[in-house]
Design brief:
Oligomer: single chain
Structural class: mainly beta
Organism: Paenibacillus wenxiniae
Pfam families: Cu_amine_oxidN1
InterPro entries: Cu_amine_oxidase-like_N, Mao_N_sf
Helix content: under 10%
Protein name: Copper amine oxidase N-terminal domain-containing protein
Shape: elongated
Domain Copper amine oxidase-like N-terminal: 48-155
Largest sheet: 5 strands, antiparallel
């Protein structure tokens, strides 16, 4: 985005400075007047929106004199809807009736259909669409300001008038207020009270409240459950919760919990849950029922329960052959003899339980044997759903998987899978995590992580829905497809799994604002393209936003590389981008799995320490090479010939409510005797700023290992082309366009020359950003594949000027027959070789510029050198700057030109004019 300046001093000043630089660069004055270039070190560009610093994974960069920022990060902070169209490489942003269309690479854009021109086109840098700041923010009605001293862009949006807070209804004297809602859900299948979780907010009463009581009543109980009845229930038949200062309560019942009749809570019975806000002496109590009844399943072993069930449409037979069900085996298969796969009609899926599954006729499920591995089961044409009907197109299905023992009893039923409707459905996305990441009190607090679909060519993008937990059992693809745009968030496909923080203003599926203290589930729709229909994921875990919530964030960008040839863990290098808030992270753990294995968060949490590598946080993204004794998650030593992938788990501090977060998997790599040399590291480009050409740049780097290395090549690449510069491009750079460095095992420091050219053969010019890469060239004997380093930081060649003198005076001496000039040198004389003292007729003095001074030739000025300066006199025997003799009765002003030495500085500086002085004829 554009670099922003204050009103009246902005782009015009920038352009004037650039124009003066171009004029000055073309001039050479006798007496060693040169114009070199340098760049002062500047702090990184910061973006502040409505007083809050914006942090993005791709920082703002300069393109010429314009500031470019990552589009999505800024737009989401401005509450702007963003859409990316890959086929035309076009970004469309909408807010409050204004629509801006930006084609990447073009200088023309449209605002509400009207074409306008930008100085700098939108461009892609490191996979992020970067846009000119001022154009977009002003087009969206925001105020933009630029502080050059702090390198800070400030954006202020128009803030709507706050809606007055309604005056709360006074609490009746002597009564406490009921809790606003009660959400009861089944979180396990142990067959007792521990299966039930109850969530409710605190009462709005601030006085008179003594405690809360949770009551569980059979749904079949014909007697109304009222406050008066609740007060008669014995203490053993309810759970009491002290009234505290928290704003919301999440309570799991115990295995010994009883219903109001005194019977233990058990499987197969339908219950209704109530919460009573109990008044202290003199205050009446208030009762709130749960929105719906619940039924728990049978007794199971948590370790004998399959997980991560996914249902995929894999063919177009319009029968069971279209369905493939994958699942993770039970973590403890010692009691498991096999599995059963159930296909349930989605409209019945929320009530399907272990008891129903155990009693299901053999014709209505598909058996799967125990293999010791995670499984994928392809159904047959005769497969039936749990209602006994043949599987067919046009019906929405959900899958369950049950583990059985040798007695054919169900000992563990999975959670439900995603739902799909047969008939060319798009692949289904998998939600891996939902997290409360901020404290805005709205949708911006909710972050969703999901794995991309297996084949993104079948989809146009994703759509995220937030559904109240109490409504989730009725939320399906038909419901999702009918919702207005304010009730979902569109997310573009990128080829990678995603971590998305929801945008401000997003509504839930009911059209209500997303707020604290309400339980929600998240769904993701894969939007089919062409002949493929949409598909809907299964629900996420339940999340309740809280003003005090702190959730450790997951790392991203996990990569695994084969970097050496030891044949053990030292060959494995894992890189990752740190969690966004490391204040909540105590350490990271790196897990190496065989490519055929998966890793869930619960498995990672319970993994013994010998099967992962601990890494301390350091405030930066990390690259870690494992040790010789490193093992994979199966406990096997890491070795050649095996294909691996990596996961990284962030381990939270005690302040984090959600203390573990597991990354997505890296890509796979098979360890082998490598044919590639190792890339160098720590590539830096240091700019001396002395001459304004490539010779100002000194490059340093550290070789990794010179085994099989022939030479190194330093290659300069324009920053705006760096994102597409790769090993293939580096291998094709012509000999004249890189700097060759002989092979060495020590750190290298090498200065470029003024004749150095970039990778395309163009001269290194001023005011353009560049980066340096180092190509390690294989010798073709020991190793045969080259390796390219990461890029250095950006450098820009620019001008460096000396300081001007001060206190220039012109006084008459020798009976007014001569003009004496004196001045004070600048406090910083670095880079100054001498001074040129000049007289200019007063009539020309107001228009006398640095460019004019640079053109003055000897003997039309007097030269001063050294560190002591006294005075210089001009008489009618001398000449002015135009070469004319000094005359009596003509007024003159004196100027002093500080002349750069041409090495440490190359731009001259002109003083302000002295007062007038006029020689009197004798």
């Amino acid at each position: 985005m554009e670099k922003v300046c204050n009103q009246g001093t902005g782009d015009d000043k920038v352009k004037k400075k650039m124009s003066m630089a171009v004029i000055a660069a073309a001039l050479t004055v006798s007496g060693s007047v040169h114009i070199p270039y340098a760049v002062a070190a500047t702090p990184p560009i910061q973006i502040v929106i409505n007083g809050v610093k914006l942090n993005t994974d791709q920082p703002a960069v300069m393109s010429g004199s314009r500031t470019m920022v990552p589009l999505r990060g800024v737009f989401e902070a401005l509450d702007t809807t963003v859409d990316w169209k890959q086929s035309t490489r076009t970004v469309t942003a909408s807010k409050n009736g204004t629509t801006v269309v930006l084609p990447v690479g073009s200088k023309t854009a449209q605002i509400n259909g009207k074409t306008t021109t930008m100085d700098v086109p939108a461009k892609v840098i490191k996979g992020r669409t970067m846009v000119p700041l001022r154009f977009v923010t002003e087009a969206m009605g925001s105020k933009v300001d630029w502080n050059s001293s702090t390198q800070t862009v400030t954006i202020e949006t128009t803030t709507p008038t706050p809606t007055p807070t309604p005056t709360p209804t006074p609490t009746p004297s002597g009564a406490v207020m009921p809790v606003a809602f009660v959400n009861a859900s089944v979180i396990a299948q142990q067959g007792n009270g521990s299966d039930i979780q109850v969530i409710f907010p605190s009462s709005s009463s601030t006085t008179g409240l003594s405690q809360y009581r949770i009551f569980v009543a059979k749904t079949s109980d014909a007697n109304p459950f009222t406050v008066s009845r609740a007060l008669t229930i014995p203490a053993a038949n309810y759970q009491a919760i002290p009234a505290g200062t928290t704003s919301a309560y999440t309570i799991s019942l115990t295995p010994q919990s009883r219903d109001i009749d005194g019977a233990f809570i058990q499987k197969g019975t339908s219950y209704r849950v109530y919460v009573m806000a109990v008044g202290s002496t003199g205050y009446t109590s208030a009762l709130t029922p749960a929105q719906s009844s619940i039924t728990i399943g049978g007794v199971v072993s948590a370790t004998a329960t399959p997980s991560n069930v996914k249902l995929v449409d894999v063919a177009d037979f319009n029968d069971g052959r279209d369905l493939s069900v994958s699942f993770d085996k039970a973590s403890d298969e010692s009691q498991v003899s096999g599995y059963r796969v159930f296909i349930v009609r989605t409209n019945s899926a929320s009530s399907f339980n272990l008891s129903q599954a155990t009693a299901m006729p053999v014709a209505n499920y598909t058996a799967a044997s125990k293999t010791g591995s995670n499984q994928t089961v392809r159904l047959q044409s005769t497969a039936r759903d749990t209602s006994g009907m043949i599987i067919q197109s046009g019906i929405s299905y959900t899958a369950y998987v049950m583990a059985i023992n040798t007695a054919n009893d169900g000992i563990g039923l999975s959670a439900m899978s995603n739902s799909i409707t047969l008939g060319n459905a798009a692949p289904v996305a998998t939600i891996t995590k939902v997290a409360d990441v901020s404290n805005f009190g709205d949708s911006r607090d909710l972050q969703v992580s999901f794995d991309k679909v297996s084949d993104e060519s079948r989809i146009s993008g994703y759509r995220i829905f937030v559904v109240r937990s109490k409504d989730s059992s009725n939320f399906n693809l038909t419901t999702a497809s009918s919702l207005a745009s304010a009730r979902y968030m569109d997310v573009s496909k990128t080829g990678d799994s995603r971590i998305v923080t929801l945008s401000a203003g997003l509504k839930d599926s009911n059209g209500d604002a997303i707020v604290n203290n309400v339980p929600y589930c998240v769904y993701i729709m894969s939007r089919g393209t062409g002949s493929y229909g949409d598909s809907l994921s299964s629900a996420s875990s339940t999340i309740t936003l809280s003003a005090s919530s702190k959730t450790v964030g997951s790392v991203s960008g996990v990569t695994l590389s084969d970097v050496s040839d030891y044949g053990d863990g030292r060959d494995v290098q894992v890189s990752f981008t740190k969690a966004s808030d490391e204040n909540l992270v105590s350490q990271y753990r790196i897990f190496i799995t065989k490519s055929s294995s998966s890793l869930s968060l619960s498995q990672a949490q319970s993994m013994t320490s010998s099967r992962y590598t601990s890494v301390n946080k350091n405030g930066s993204n990390q690259t870690v090479t494992l040790t010789t004794g490193a093992r994979d998650t199966d406990g096997d030593p890491i070795k050649n010939g095996v294909t691996y992938r990596a996961f990284v788990m962030a381990v939270g501090t005690g302040d984090a409510a959600d203390t573990y977060a597991l990354s997505s998997a890296s890509g796979t790599a098979t360890l082998s005797g490598s044919t590639a040399v190792l890339a160098v590291s720590a590539v830096t480009a240091t700019n001396s700023g002395a001459r304004g050409d490539a010779s100002d740049i000194t490059v340093s780097f550290t070789p990794a290992n010179d085994a099989g290395v022939s030479e190194y090549r330093m290659i300069v690449v324009r920053s705006d082309q760096a994102s597409s510069f790769n090993l293939a491009a580096a291998n094709s750079v012509a000999t004249a366009n890189y700097t060759r460095i002989a092979k060495t095992g020590a750190a290298v420091t090498q200065a470029l020359t003024s004749a150095t050219r970039d990778n395309n053969g163009n001269a290194i010019v001023r005011n353009v950003g560049y980066r340096v890469y180092v190509l390690t060239v294989a010798d073709g004997l020991v190793r045969s594949v080259n390796a390219l380093s990461a890029a250095s930081g950006e450098f820009t060649l620019t001008e460096k000027a000396v300081a001007a003198v001060t206190s220039v005076s012109a006084d008459l001496v020798n009976n007014n027959s001569a003009i004496r000039v004196s001045f004070t040198p600048p406090a910083n004389t670095a880079g100054i070789s001498s001074y040129a003292i000049m007289l200019v007729p007063s009539g020309n003095a107001n228009n006398f510029t640095l460019a004019d001074a640079n053109r003055v030739t000897a003997p039309n000025y007097k030269t001063a050198t050294g560190s002591t300066y006294s005075e210089w006199s001009f008489t009618t025997m001398n000449t002015d700057t135009s070469g004319n003799a000094i005359r009596a009765n003509v007024a003159y002003r004196a100027f002093v030109l500080s002349i750069a030495n041409g090495s440490t500085a190359t731009v001259n500086a002109l003083s302000v004019a002295s007062r007038e002085a006029t020689i009197v004829p004798q």
